[in-house]
Amino acid sequence: MNRQSGVIRILTVDDHPLLRKGIATLVNAEADMKLVAEAANGQEAIEQYRLHRPDVTLMDLQMPGMNGAEAIGEIQSEFPNARIIVLTTYRAMLKY
Amino acid sequence: MFKNLIDKLNARMSPKAALLCVLILSLLAAFAQPLLALNPESRISQYGHTVWRVQDGNLNGSPTAFAQTPDGYIWIGTQNGLYRFDGVNFLLRNPPAGQRYPSGIANIQSLYAARDGSLWVGTSAGLAHWANGTFSSIPDLNAGVAGIAEDTEGAIWITRTHLHSFTGPICKISAGNARCYGEPEGIQTLSGGSIAVDAQGRFWIGGNGTLVAWQGKLLGEYPLPGAKAPNSARVIEGVAVDAEGVWVGVDQTGPHDGLQHFAGGRWSSFTAPGFNGANVNVRALFIDRDRSLWVGTSNQGIYRIHGQSVDHFGHEDGLSSNSIDRIFQDREGSIWVSTDEGLDHFRDLPIVTYSSAEGLGTEVVGSILARRNGTTTIGTLSSIDSLQGTVITSRRISGLRGIAPALLEDHRGNLWISTADGGLGVEVNGRLRLIFKGDSGASVFSLAEDTDQAVWALIAGPHPRLVRIENFEVREEFKPKIPAGYCVTADPQGGIWLSLLDGRLMRYLHGEWQELSVEPLKRKYSRVGGIYNMSFDSDGTLWGAANSGVVGYRNGNLQFLNERNGLPCPSTYATVSDVHHDLWIQTQCGLVRIENAALERWWRNPESRLRVTTFTTADGFRSGIPYSHPGAVRGVDGKLWFQNARVLMMVDPDHLAANAVVPPVHLEQVIADRRIYDAQSGLRLPPRTQQLQIDYTGLSYVAPSKVLFRYRLDGYDTQWQEPETRRTAFYNDLRPGNYTFRVIASNNSGRWNDEGASLQFSIAPAYYQTYWFRAMWGAVLVVLVWALYQFRLRQMMQEFNIALEARVNERTRIARELHDTLLQSLHGLMFQYQAARNMLPRSPEDARKTLDDAIFETEQAIAESRDAIHDLRTQPLSEGDLAPLLETAGEEMATVEGGDRDSPGFRVIVEGEPRKLSPNLQDEVYRIACEVLRNAFRHAEAGQIEAEIRYDKSQLRLRIRDDGKGIDPKILEETRRPGHWGLPGVRERAQCIGSQLSFWSQAGAGTEVELTIPASIAYEGQRNGGRFKALGLKALRKEWKL
């Protein structure tokens, strides 16, 4: 657990690489934020969460394999204090 | 005294019984309809006589008894059983299985047809009874039953012989048991024989030397004359009763034996010219409906006594034997005689014959003449015979050398006689006067007296000629102007007619010869032939019997009547008209009568078909050619006379022996496929009955060969069959169903029983012919059709759903692609742009770099979007082959996707006969192929890419392979590698169309993707059928949970 105090460590979860890259660019441009890991689906998200314990997780919902909602459930059951921001483009997708 | 007795008896009869008696008698009369009889004026030898001999095998023993049941059958008892006779077949009727005659003895001695229709059978050991087909025997009689009779109240009485104990000879049968009367009732005779019933219902019973009068009790017992004790050995064998008294017959001769008569309490013998009743051994007596007494003897055949005239008929006349047992008269009036050798049947005939047996001088009939005094004169070879009434007198005429075919009675009543040597004489006042002497070989063929009282003689022989005689002298001779002729006849209008051997017809009138030309007839009917005989009807019509028909001439009309008009055969020999102007024609095959009305019709229309009556040999006709002229004559009493050179035949047109008894018709049995069934209505025959035979009979015994039948099978025949004599009907392969067989019959005189008999029967259907079976099949069919309809409905719904699903899927896919590509890309790019904007004030250099990246990635997103749009727009693909489509797509990709690399080689291989794919499917396959190809082109870094399409019968196979870097199997396992390969979409598509997708890949060894689709889904045309078949079974299985 390698913590830099004052820096918000972020995990992005999205199946779309371009979106992940956009977020990474945006996050890294902020001095107090740092992207620590990326994941393309729910399963990867859990693994990366365990590995990096990010402060904030940006989670897409609609993904192949394990989707965002399931991953949130898993992560929260394991780490009840996890802070996760759902980041999705489809309003309709919320239904999933 | 006899009268007194009858009066006394009448007085004893209660009024009620008398009324009943009258009732029954009138009922009997009504039931019996016309009871016919035999003409007592005929000699027995003149009756139609039929014999069935025991030795012919018809009967299994000597016949001993007769009865005719109300249904019309005649029953014949023999020493060995009971026979039912229908005129053609003798049917042995044994007791049913398990039953037998008393003591098992079938020696029948008496039969009685009761009014209730049942039949009583007396045997030498007891009594049996047939009622409605049920047999029973009466116990405890222990004796022969010789007589059976029914009293006025319908009770059955029997007489017993050969009694073993003195228990009485007379018994009453009631409720199947016998109550016998004997000594206690005052009866002296030990045994009882024949029973005769008189008009008052009294029984006259022949006993041992005594005659017993009985009516429920003993009325009197009268010993035979000359006997003191009643129980002598003189057994009374025959008893017959009429209004005058009782005839009794004893089977021994003697002054008080033979035939005896009992009347007024007195016995008398019977004698008649040539007959002494005391000299005959009597076995059987019978009084027929004309009150002729028939006497059957044990050694002299039969006698018939009618008034004082006694006729005899014995074995020498054709009777089966001289030893008689029974005499019986049936409903049609025929007389039946049983002898120890067989059965004899006598019937009246319409044609009565006279031959030497009846007293003619010789066995040759040369000529006939009807005299004005009512006698019939017959010229035989050597005598002139005269028949007056039934008496024939024969006389020889001195001075004549044989009699020739011509006789003539002139206007003074003198008899002209032609002689065998060609001479001609005339008897004047009993003296023969010769007109001319004969010359050798010649003969006077025909004689005629014209209206001028001149006699014409036609002479045949070496010098044929015609002469005219006046005042017993030849005045004129026509020679050789007139050639040889057949006959000459006088025209009542004057002059004569002459028929010539060459067929011409000549008329002589007022000294002139004229020819009546038959040429027009010959031209029209090809053949007329010589006219043998001519006759004039009293209406002036000339009839000529010709070789092939009859010529008629009236009022200047000459017409021809032959087979086309209904004559049964062509050759006619003689004609004569009766007083009703009906024409009688003697032909080769019978005597034909044509009624005047029919003749008039024929005169109006010579081609009309006429109803003719033909009297054949069964009616007494004897065939043969008459050589005399005239050939047929009519007596002053209206009787017609014919001859055939051997016998004389007489017909009385006003008293024709016609049978007016309607013949009962019965169905005897049904034989279906060799199994015999009783002909009972409601008969049910088994399924698939193929051969059906129905036996029926019509009960007329006068001439069974002339009984005609017509039948029809309702449910099969549409009309009645033509009349025929066959007594069997055959049907083959009748369909199952209900039928009614109807048959009607006519007797020998053409009297039809129009009601006939009918039999309702059914043929059961085989299981596959039943209604329920057919209904079941119908139901199955309906269910099947319904199931098919449902199946098709589901199939269509499924297809519709598939199409709908495909569209929904497609939309989902588009949405997903939009999301995956455009939206996500835009989102990502937006973040980058925002980052660049955020960086710009602090570090413009980083911002520029970020912007450059963003611009590059925007380009990439545009390219990706273009692909997606391209995919969507690549429609429609249903037209054309898959191979060229793939080729085009591959070439396009090679240029677009290759980028800076050397583009890989690409080719499409087709195996098998290309087939048209179903449009939707082709689309999907193409998309899958494109996706896989695009992957290969983009990522495989391959040198060669191949698409192989293989059209198999059972499936369509598509393989796409490359020799590129391959895919790590791990990635294949996961099926998803973020961002690349598009494989999941391919898989989804493949599943969606029901195909199989498999990958094979090895890192560095290329990739192969195989898509297989079953033929039923893949190919058009086959699709429906194939799918139908495959899914049909599946659907049915599902339907019936098989």
Explain the overall architecture:
- The complex is a heterodimer of chains A (96) and B (1042).
- Chain A has 96 residues and is an alpha/beta fold.
- In chain A, 35% of the residues lie in helices and 22% in strands.
- Chain A has 3 helices and 4 strands.
- In chain A, helix 2 packs parallel to helix 3.
- The longest helix of chain A has 12 residues.
- In chain B, the strands form 18 sheets. In chain B, strands 67-68-69-71-70 form a 5-stranded mixed sheet. Chain B has a 4-stranded antiparallel sheet with strand order 1-30-29-28, with no helix packed on it.
- In chain B, helix 5 runs antiparallel to helix 6 and helix 7 runs parallel beside helix 8.
- The N terminus and C terminus of chain B are likely disordered.
Tags for this model:
heterodimer, A: 96 residues, alpha/beta, four-stranded parallel sheet, 4 strands, 35% helix, globular, disordered C terminus, B: 1042 residues, alpha+beta, five-stranded mixed sheet, four-stranded antiparallel sheet, elongated, disordered N terminus
Short précis:
The complex is a heterodimer of chains A (96) and B (1042). Chain A is of the alpha/beta class and 96 residues long.
Number of helices of chain A: 3
Helix fraction bin of chain A: 25-40%
Name the helix and strand elements of chain A from N-terminus to C-terminus, one letter apiece. EHEHEHE
Query: Span from first to last CA of chain A?
Result: 34 Å
Amount of beta strand of chain A: 15-25%
Structural class of chain B comes to alpha+beta
Gross geometry of chain A: globular
Coarse morphology of chain B = elongated
- Oligomeric status of the shown chains? heterodimer
Whole-number radius of gyration of chain B? 57 Å
Count of distinct strands of chain A: 4
Number of helices, where a helix is a run of at least 4 consecutive DSSP H or I residues of chain B:
12
> Strand order, biggest sheet of chain B?
67-68-69-71-70
Mean pLDDT over the residues of chain A:
82
Distance between the termini of chain B: 106 Å
Structural class based on helices, strands and sheet pairing of chain A: alpha/beta
Largest interface: A-B, 22 and 26 residues
Instruction: State the share of residues found in helices of chain B, binned by percent.
Output: 10-25%
Pick out the low-confidence regions of chain B.
1-34, 976-981, 1023-1042
